[in-house]
Amino acid sequence: MLSQSGDWKGDAKAAEEAARKFEQEKVNLIYTTSTNSTIAARRATAEIPIVFCAGTDPVVVGLVDSFAKPGGRLTGIYQPATDLTAKRLEILKEMVPKLRRVVTFYDPRRPTAIESSKLAREAAQQMGLQLVERHVASIEELQTCVRALRAGEVDAYLAVSDAIASNQAQLIIDTARVKKFATMLDFLSHVIKGGLASYAVSFHEMGRLSAKYVQRILTGVKPQDLPVEGIDRIELVINLKTAKDIGLTIPPNVLARADRVIR
Predict the structure, then answer these.
(1) What is the DSSP-derived secondary structure letter of residue 5?
(2) Per residue in 105-142, pLDDT tens?
């Protein structure tokens, strides 16, 4: 399995190397849990079937020909992580009524980050917010940018679809708590670790649907004969302990909409 926050730590070359090794070892299938790791696995292999859980539209980034007819050796699940970027910013604005400046970190060379940041930029303009975009090309650059943030410089952090930022989520979360700004994330696991909120698909549902694809391919069905399936179960999770730590009171109407509240 290749995941964006696993051993390759957001390094596409490392992911490609791992995928290449899997094919050399003649494993039966590769399962990827992010769009970036899927792109890396496809680039590095020629024959092995790949089941993906992509957070960016797989047709838009060229992983499949269409949802109904994938057309190759890749198929799997589409969970709208990138498409939810604007909605995350909207919810963030509801949680932080005085929101003005929002920072985000991403590698502008990655297709997922390009699309996600574009959606964030357009949504910020519509809401009258300033999106502070910090470009990073490595974990080290991101760490430097995060640590350089001054208290009061921004009101919140918005996660966009970027492997480097996702890998360093804990640093961002810890910095936000110390410097008292909100965080809107794209993974429930990051909220459990201390982030303020996430708006994302259910990981349980992702795993359940992905397992069906893996099982069918391992029993002989070709990826090209399995249409890509989308997940539409989206959950809003809020960490009230973190809200208290940063001095934020979540409006009751937003709290009432949460699918899960961590206290």
Answers:
(1) T
(2) 999 999 889 999 999 999 999 999 999 999 999 999 99
